[in-house]
Amino acid sequence: IDDAASNQHSCARRSTKMKRTIPCGSLFDVPIHVHVVLPVYCLLTALPSLLVGNVYLFCTVLVLNGPVLFLTVLVHEMGHALMATRLGGVVDSILLWPLGGLAYVGGVTSAKDDLLVTLAGPITHIPMGLLWWLALKMHVFFFSKMLQYIAAQAIYMNFLLFAFNLLLPVFPMDGGRLLVNVLMTLGMQPETTAKTSCVIGGAFLAGMGGYGVILLMREDHWGVMWIMIAAWLGMQLMEIWRAVQEGRIEEHPSFNYRETDTLDSYFEESSGDAEGGLAKNFLRADPN
């Protein structure tokens, strides 16, 4: 494919990717987009409280799953983006959607650098959690019981996201990327690394899916979320496993770092849907 055709294909894919999103400006020159389903999700999670007449709980849940979660995930993704830029990489955009955040990052040319980029996201939850804790300790929200409760929940939210992203070794979650980065840094071959990642990740996803089913059997609606996250992550692992079977795993940037890689090459070679190729963009997924 010649460069002109590739670039046109790249732009078309990026246009399609952002078609069902709402542009929300940019931060440090990184475009921010919100998927149209995210506001609907926030409303749906709070609606049951309103239906039973609990306006107080409705407002609380709406604020927690709206602006608080939005800003928390955005700061996390900006951690990835700013570290990538500092190490010479490039950032196309950040997308916030119901299952968390996606940072489209490219140009990171070593497993060690990608390890730093990966860690830069979850680490942001430490200062964010501390800020909420200080706000409580200094009685910043003394005038509102609701805001005090929201601050306490925000501390728990940051702790949960920190642990969930780092300790879940499923690609492309941060924990999965850390596993890949460490194995590659230790000298493991790309194919072996990918297989190891898929086996370990698959075992954890089976547990997640089973836990979701148990929650549903107990009539807990959060079971749907666990199953959705497990299903989406499972599709990402299937794409990697398919690439291993077809001998294409070294085309993936996380298993073959090249000095010549640029952001456009990640997108223009990205044809993991209709054309059957392996997605080349550094997709960082951080479910909320």
Description:
By secondary structure, this protein is an alpha+beta fold. Helices cover 62% and strands 11% of the residues. The protein contains ten helices and five strands; from the N terminus they run H-E-E-H-H-E-E-H-H-H-H-H-H-H-E. It has helices at residues 3-17, 37-51, 55-86, 111-120, 125-137, 145-167, 174-185, 190-217, 222-245, 263-268, and strands spanning 21-27, 30-35, 90-97, 100-106, 282-286. A five-stranded mixed β-sheet has the order 1-2-3-4-5. Strand 3 (90-97) and strand 4 (100-106) form a beta hairpin. It is globular. The two termini are 38 Å apart.
Q: What level of helicity do the residues show?
A: 55-70%
Give the total of beta strands. 5
Give the overall average pLDDT: 81
Low-confidence stretches: 1-16, 259-282
Largest sheet: 5 strands, mixed
How would you sum up the global shape?
globular
H/E topology pattern? HEEHHEEHHHHHHHE
Structure annotation, total helices: 10
By secondary-structure content and strand pairing, the structural class works out as alpha+beta
Attribute tags:
288 residues, alpha+beta, 5-stranded mixed sheet, 11% strand, disordered N terminus
Topology:
Blueprint: H1 3-17, E1 21-27, E2 30-35, H2 37-51, H3 55-86, E3 90-97, E4 100-106, H4 111-120, H5 125-137, H6 145-167, H7 174-185, H8 190-217, H9 222-245, H10 263-268, E5 282-286
Parallel strand pairs: 2-3
Antiparallel strand pairs: 1-2, 3-4, 4-5
